[in-house]
Specification:
Its EC number is 3.6.5.n1. Its main location: membrane. It is a peripheral membrane protein. By secondary structure, the chain is α+β, with helices and mostly antiparallel strands. Helices cover 26% and strands 34% of the residues. The strands form seven sheets. The protein has an eight-stranded antiparallel sheet, with no helix packed on it. A six-stranded mixed sheet has the order 2-3-1-4-5-6, with helices on both faces. Strand 21 and strand 22 form a beta hairpin. The protein binds guanosine-5'-triphosphate (GTP).
Length: 599
């Protein structure tokens, strides 16, 4: 298709669960991309984990052909975007490939903070934003109220927003018709030198690196010699094509189109996201503006339970980074846990996903230490260092100032729950920056310490607001704070992997909560186990796990050998995720006890 006026490139902006995947599936069905049977599994969420958790992680694209009521056939390139705040950065990438975005809002729920943030990104990037009110089939749907909310919260006209039910299919064709009308067609010279933006790259075991690109000008076809601008390397194109949603080769990709390129590139660093591709014959083509580099926000140490697994762990991480440019790691050694890696994640969800993949796909048993953010430390000699591991914090005598990362959080909450949300923010050391009443909702902005936000803030926010408050946040600055290291001692031995950096005012309280929680989590052993929390040289809390009196096997009355064996096996399985620290066995949960205390 070379008539650009028949192409529409768009994304869908929606809060989690507002129905983006269901709507996309409907589009695919209407445009005849898949049979009913193939529709059975939601197609866009292609990774197993994504499907299980029902969340979208990687940006994908689908090219569809829609026979519109005006008698013309349009090529619709739909670029998927992830909904979770951890993957916010992928949204702006997907938007860079589009001229427009559908803002899908659940008509029974209303606007949520995440969609507001993504909408602003779209508007900043010059996209046409088209509101769609979904779930109109629900009895509690209030399209007028929600349309008014879109206008007041986001500030775009929603008077004639399309209403639909992605579930029943009602109104979905109207969405497509309106999309063709309001979202501009792409512009670009087909005869100009190739200029293509890499939106995403991933590693496929069979195909090698696959890159999703948006061709801005020119064209690219199989056999072309393509130049990756930032690396300066030239690769021969093996194939180009689109996902419809199945991977389908095409003769070429032209200006205005979105599709994939495979060019024998060995790893994703050879085709960096945000980079520009051109042909080797036109090396002087300008670079397109790329994307902001992704910075991990949360760090944790991961250690194999069995030290024999260290090399397998390293291999697994290498493979995972082929597909996940956001994942960063470096070797770490701990007195308590031996050799492992300190890994940087985008957020807690990202951390859980990586941990699960390592355990499930690579069959590793891992111990994870408590996650932490990065602190900025100014030393007395003027040097500034960044600490992502509490046990590596320099001696307090050498520290001039400690600074913690602060985020600007935007929260949308119905008025009824405003009080409890404010209480929560104050408890988390938040400073209010703004508050705007918008109909039945209130938009509040807080500066909050990132350390308080990444761990459990989102869950707490949901629980104090009965699920109604929503949150969006981004790193703002480092700010001086009275921070100290809280050490944990087990039978008088300091366990480096249990150290935390906390605010001085909360240190004693946190210490007490932590030792109490750990007391519940560390199983009884043959001897007393003393758990202490210390700040500097000073013990701030203490508790004891009492010794076990009876031998478990005594219960078996000697006779039944198979029962005894079963019991031992059960014990062994239970032990799998334990680590021997000194002479005490510490289970995984105890390392994450800080996440479990009700702070
Ligand atoms: N009643 C009703 N339910 C819907 C409608 N559209 C989607 N749902 C349901 O809402 C839930 C969430 O829909 P999804 O399409 O998975 O939501 P999503 O926004 O893609 O979620 P992520 O992939 O996690 O971003 C599912 O249980 C859907 O069946 C609708 O029009 N009406």
């Amino acid at each position: 298709m070379s008539d650009l006026s028949l192409i529409r490139n768009f994304s869908i902006i929606a809060h989690i669960d507002h129905g983006k995947s269901t709507l996309a599936d409907r589009f695919i069905q209407i445009c005849g991309g898949l049979s009913e049977r193939e529709m059975a599994a939601q197609v866009l969420d292609s990774m197993d984990l994504e499907r299980e958790r029902g969340i979208t992680i990687k940006a994908h694209s689908v090219t569809l052909h829609y026979n519109a009521k005006d008698g013309k056939t349009y090529q619709l390139n739909f670029i998927d975007t992830p909904g979770h705040v951890d993957f916010h950065y992928e949204v702006s990438r997907s938007l860079a490939a589009c001229e427009g975005a559908l803002l899908v809002v659940d008509a029974a729920q209303g606007v949520e903070a995440q969609s507001v943030a993504n909408c602003y990104t779209a508007i900043e990037q010059g996209l046409e934003v088209m509101p769609v009110l979904n779930k109109i089939d629900l009895p509690q749907a209030e399209p007028e109220r929600v349309a008014a909310e879109i206008e007041s919260v986001i500030g775009i006209d929603a008077t004639d927003a399309v209403v639909c039910s992605a579930k029943s299919g009602l109104g979905v064709e109207d969405v497509l018709e309106r999309l063709i009308e309001v979202i501009p067609a792409p512009v670009g010279e087909i005869d100009a030198p190739l200029q293509a933006l890499i939106i995403d790259s991933w590693f496929d075991n069979y195909l090698g690196v696959v890159s999703l690109v948006r061709v801005k000008q020119g064209r690219i076809k199989k056999g072309d010699k393509v130049l990756v601008k930032s690396t300066g390397r030239v690769h021969q194109v093996d194939s180009v094509g689109v996902f419809n949603p199945k991977h389908t080769e095409t003769a070429d990709l032209k200006a205005g189109e979105v599709g994939f390129i495979i060019a024998g590139i060995k790893d994703i660093h050879g085709a960096p996201v945000g980079d520009t591709l051109t042909l080797s014959s036109t090396p002087d083509v300008e670079m397109l503006p790329g994307f902001q580099k992704v910075q991990p926000q949360v760090f944790a140490g991961l250690f194999p339970v069995s030290s024999d697994d260290f090399e397998d762990f390293r291999d697994a991480l290498e493979k995972l980074t082929l597909n996940d440019a956001a994942l960063q790691y470096e070797p770490e050694s701990s007195d308590a846990l031996g050799f492992g890696f300190r890994i940087g994640f985008l957020g807690m969800l990202h951390m859980e996903i990586i941990q699960e993949r390592l355990e499930r796909e690579y069959d590793l048993d891992l111990i994870t230490t408590a996650p932490t953010v990065v602190f900025e430390v100014v030393k007395k000699d003027g040097e500034i260092i960044y600490v992502d591991n509490p046990s590596r914090l320099p001696d307090p005598a050498l520290i001039e100032e400690m600074r913690e990362p602060i985020v600007r959080a935007n929260i949308l909450v119905p008025q009824d729950h405003l009080g409890s949300v404010i209480t929560l923010c104050v408890e988390k050391r938040g400073v209010q920056r703004d508050m705007v009443f918008l109909g039945s909702q209130v938009q509040v902005a807080y500066d909050l310490p990132m350390n308080e936000v990444v761990l459990d803030f989102f869950d707490r926010l949901k629980s104090v607001s009965r699920g109604y408050a929503s949150l969006d946040y981004a790193f703002d600055r480092f700010q001086a704070a009275r921070l100290v290291r809280l050490d944990v001692l087990i039978n008088n031995e300091k366990v480096d992997a249990l150290a935390l950096i906390v605010h001085r005012d909360n240190a004693a309280f946190k210490g007490r909560q932590l030792v109490e929680k750990m007391k519940e989590l560390i199983p009884r052993q043959m001897f007393d186990v003393a758990i202490q929390a210390a700040m500097g040289g000073q013990i701030v809390a203490r508790s004891t796990v009492k010794a076990l009196r009876k031998n478990v096997l005594a219960k078996c009355y000697g006779g039944d050998a198979s029962r005894k064996k079963k019991l031992l096996e059960k014990q062994k399985a239970g032990k799998k995720r334990m680590k021997q620290v000194g002479n005490v066995e510490i289970p995984q949960e105890a390392f994450l006890a800080v996440l479990k205390v009700d702070n």
